[in-house]
Specification:
The chain is built from nine helices and 21 strands. It is an alpha+beta fold. The relative contact order is 0.19. A hairpin with a 2-residue loop joins strand 2 and strand 3 (52-56). The chain has helices spanning 7-15, 27-35, 109-126, 149-158, 211-223, 272-286, 319-333, 348-351, 376-393; strands at residues 41-43, 46-49, 52-56, 58-62, 68-74, 94-96, 99-101, 132-138, 165-168, 180-182, 184-185, 187-196, 200-201, 238-245, 253-254, 257-266, 302-306, 314-315, 338-340, 357-359, 373-375.
């Protein structure tokens, strides 16, 4: 049986499985078929929780005496949007102009395809690795992230699995391979603010209480002053108001209530709990202001609801893992990658509780877009980087 040494062939097989989250659609079966000739033991647990879809996951391990390196990722993809807008069918894995087109090409079936090819080449050249390799693959990264990586880690740890380090194959490079290794992620915290008022005629404001006035002051307090100036490893904490709504179709009616939702990406100066306390304090102070509410001495009446499951901030300090990842990138590309904590959240936020973790994958310029695609040359280069990492790790 031939080994899956060609990353482009591996990726084409995965793209042709329309695994729009949370559907498995054959993607995990295709991956299992690639891993079987390499000697991996594969398990595919399904996790459930009320109010969320059941999700099938995959855990594969090639066991050996020595350090254990885990590769983590996801086979689920975001919806394609308007399929008619695609130059090539989104699940056809069409190759054109030196690139492969398809949903998940970059985010992140491409990373999985390259790692499998790297493992196959390593085994072909060196035999069984001097240690253990595992793949921890979920079908719930692009969805609620409830029945995916977090549950899979808990399940594997309960079975006695322990990892020395992990690499997440998310697309981390802004422009070209070798740009960036992610060594941490900012935290993420979201909430919805509701201000109560009293509905009335816009021509008779003294008979009403416009909640937009109060909401405006509260939003201002959320956004100013700055929360911090950044830290050694992270950019400044940033709050963005993502929606404002009064549900009011009439221009001559003062609404009865107003809402605003916001998201904060925070650095390691804060925890979710300390940031929530700071935000509550800002809102309580702003509610006492009367600048936009003349003649109304009572505080603004508001409620604040926090979204479930804020994402923690973290940074990896494991010198060995970071050094080997940087060396693998440099040896193959000749570039010195930046160590970064920018961007959104990823499943690395769960893995960091079990072992040191870094992220390195393809160039992310077309992820989630119409005509998502990856250069075939990048697939080969990333495979060589992963292959070099494996050689260094088991050296």
């Amino acid at each position: 049986m031939s080994l899956p040494v060609d990353p482009a062939a591996n990726l084409a097989t995965l793209i042709r499985c329309p695994s729009v989250t949370p559907a498995e659609a054959g993607a995990l079966s295709a991956l299992e078929a690639m891993l079987d000739p390499l000697g991996f033991a594969v398990e595919r647990p399904v996790f459930s929780e009320v109010g969320t879809p059941d999700v099938e996951n995959l855990y594969a391990r090639l066991s050996g005496a020595g350090p254990h390196l885990c590769f983590a990722g996801h086979t689920d993809v975001v919806p394609v949007g308007d399929e008619a807008a695609w130059t090539h069918p989104p699940f056809a894995a069409t190759v054109a102009n030196g690139a492969m087109f398809g949903r998940g090409a970059v985010d992140m079936k491409g990373g999985i395809a390259c790692f499998v090819a790297a493992v196959a080449r390593h085994i072909g050249e060196h035999g069984a690795p001097a240690g253990s390799i595992s793949l921890l693959i979920t079908g719930d990264e692009e969805g609620p992230a409830v029945n995916g990586t977090q549950r899979l880690l808990e399940w594997a740890a309960a079975k006695g699995e322990r990892w020395d380090a992990a690499v997440v194959g998310e697309p981390t490079n802004p422009e070209q391979l070798g740009d960036m290794i992610k060594i941490g992620r900012r935290g993420s915290l979201s909430g919805t603010l509701r201000v109560a008022g009293r509905q009335g005629h816009a021509a008779y404001p003294h008979l009403a209480d416009n909640p937009v006035r109060g909401l405006t002051m509260l939003i201002d307090a959320l956004m100013h002053p700055a929360y911090d100036e950044g830290t050694e490893n992270f950019q400044p904490t940033n709050l963005e108001v993502t929606s404002v709504d009064v549900g009011n179709p009439a221009v001559n009616v003062i609404p009865a209530s107003a809402t605003a939702s916001f998201n904060v990406r925070f650095n390691d100066r804060w925890t979710a709990e300390s940031l929530q306390a700071e935000i509550h304090d800002r809102l309580d102070r702003a509610a006492q202001l009367t600048r936009l509410r003349p003649g109304r001495p009572e505080p603004v009446s508001f409620e604040l609801d926090w979204r479930d499951r804020p994402s923690p901030v973290f940074v990896t300090h494991d010198d060995k893992l970071i050094a080997l990842m940087r060396r693998a990138v440099s040896d193959v590309t000749g570039r010195q990658p930046e160590l970064s904590t920018t961007g959104g959240t990823s499943d690395a936020r769960f893995i960091k509780d079990y072992c040191p973790v870094v992220e390195f994958g393809l160039v992310g310029q077309t992820m989630h877009m119409v005509d998502e695609h990856v250069a075939l040359a990048d697939l080969e280069t990333l495979t060589q980087i992963y292959q070099r990492l494996l050689a260094l790790w088991f050296e």
